[in-house]
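Title: [Solved] 6-phospho-3-hexuloisomerase 3D structure

Original question kept below for reference.
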Amino acid sequence: MNTTQYLGSILDELRISETISDSDAETLIHAVLEADKVFVAGAGRSGFMAKSFAMRLGHLGIPAHVPGETTTPGFEERDLMIIASGSGETKSLVSMAEKAKSLGGTVAAVTISPDSTIGNLADLKVKMPGAPKDQSGDSGETIQPMGSLFEQLLLLFFDALILRIMEKKGMNTKKMYGKHANLE
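Solution (posted by the thread starter after getting help):
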């Protein structure tokens, strides 16, 4: 296959997003809108997708933070921790979920594995389609290596959540742009 054929195959694979529960997505949106602060976490490439979601939440005027960043405030009882983890077993993310629960906050898991450790700690979860990274490319579910399909779906899913939150808040791109970084 050539590059554009691979791209076409990847786009075809992303159609699996239609299996994501709209009800679970709406529950997560409600939790985001009700939280005092939203924290998002992921490891590796999933972490990049989570950070992009935090950025867009900030553009919507929703206090959003990434654990480990210098300016991240403390997590409190009325806060929401959203953890993006394909396996749901990443040790550092399990620790964050446990800590958030111990502080009385809400934990949401966006994961391929809702019955994982993080999934079982979560108050709400969104099951994402995809193959675990140790099987991707070999499972028949995806031609892509490792966790690529999950990571791509995360970005698109988080962007879809942003569009729905924009709709609920009566926001548009022009209003959001006022909160965009302007020192670069």
